[in-house]
Amino acid sequence: MTRRATITGWGKCLPPVKLTNADLEHLVDTDDRWIVERTGIKSRSINHMQTTDMAEVAALHALAAAGLEATDIDLIIMATVSPEITCPSNACHLQARLGAVNAAAFDLNAACSGFVYAAITASSMIASGVKQRVLVVGAEQLHWVMDYWDRNTCILFGDGAGAAIFESSTNGDGMLGADLGADGPAGSTMVIESLGTRYNLIEGRDPATSRLHFEGKAVFKIAVQGIAASVRQALDQAGVSADDVNLVVPHQANERIINAAARRLGIGLDRVMINIADHGNTAAASVPMALCDAANTGRITPGDLVVMTAFGGGVTWASAVFRWGQRVTAVGTSDAALPPTDATVFELLAANREFFAPLHSGDA
Ligand code: UT7
User: Cα(213)–Cα(60) distance, rounded to whole angstroms?
Assistant: First the structure.
């Protein structure tokens, strides 16, 4: 009997403070209509805590949905490109917070493709018998690297976390095929220069290299072509066709990218999960949050063929084809939530605006 990894729990954390398109009109020269027409985004969340706080909330919901205790988990993979800290890993930090004392833990960075990379890694470890129950989390605090004076980037991204539990199954469900890849030479299209050792010890942080550098048009093209090719590859490996797919859960970067990729694949939008309107682009958190919304709104039925797909900085891409198991309703629920805050979104972004202001002193 073939052993595969099947998804048995899901959860998310969307921070309570929202940055709406109307709020952005106060920060940059933009308008709600432009943003909605070009991206499909209406609002995104700005976290008032840390990356791991969101990860913990998402993980607690996923554990409850799977009917598991934290001690049942034997591996935690945290996908993030906006870590709270780089040593120890955020996954270790999360392990401590959850009390998941039996779990190995590591972070994985594949930018927006991180969750799908991690899902494939978890599934492979389960299929090989190395691990049995894996918690995979995608968590991002992207507002930290966002220049809220730059309308080209700041309208797109948001904060959040999503989580899923992968468990061993011999019932024929689980991951049937996958594709993942990278194109390092194209990586200059999306860069956060100074989140690592390039940060200059003597001169301190330079706003010019501390913000996300992003070439929107180039990324758009890479994304549409990349998603379609990657999904085809994963479907081929699984021995199924696009017609067999019940639901695609894509990275939520831009609704136009999703629409164009779905068209190329010949998959109607009724078979595509889209929740970008009130999430924005949350990088590695986007696929697990969309998966969670799909499961909680009845978009997945037992035995469905579900495809997760993402592309992002690196450039990286990944797609995974899952035969869903019997679990389509959460076993239990959790009341985990971030602590409330009285801070307004403008208060949360004030330090960021101040830090990046020198880059815009000559703007018209
Ligand atoms: O997760 C992976 C990373 N993210 C993505 O995959 C996103 C990929 N790229 C995109 O989503 C799109 O390229 C954008 C949404 C970033 C831009 O959409 P676009 O249709 O490619 O717009 P554009 O860059 O061609 O800009 C058109 C015009 C420009 O004005 P001019 O030069 O024609 O006068 C921009 O300056 O729109 C202007 N513009 C804006 N106007 C109002 C750019 N940003 C804004 C804005 N509000 N926020």
Answer: 34
